[in-house]
Amino acid sequence: MKRFQITQRQACRTLNVHRNSIRYQPVVRDDEEELVKEIIELATNFGRKGYRMVTDILRNRGYKISYKKVARIWRREGLKRPKKQTKKRRIFGSDGNCVRLRAMHKNHGFKKQTLLFTLEISKPILTMIILQLLI
Fold first, then answer.
1. pTM to 2 decimals?
2. CA 20 to 30 Å from 109, out of 19, 32, 61, 126?
């Protein structure tokens, strides 16, 4: 502003920015580094927990912190929840037990086969998908 010889008020009005946002100095907590390390440690140890659950854990440990502060640190550090793993498909036997078919060798595939069960009146009542090893 000194270079162009205009006041801060005129520069902010020209750029359509509030002067408060120019003058703002962020307040840094005394235990900020310790808090960041704690959040990263919790995020790595508790895989599927998000920032809200981490906030609750920190509050139980004695920190006075809002979930918004934890969310800001979470984004700044690039933390993310890992993707939820899909459940593996299973095949059910006639006796009710559950057996997972394993691949016998590399690139061993499975095929889907649809069987249609009927009653004596020959109406379909149940369609089951059975995974069967390719032979």
1. 0.49
2. 126
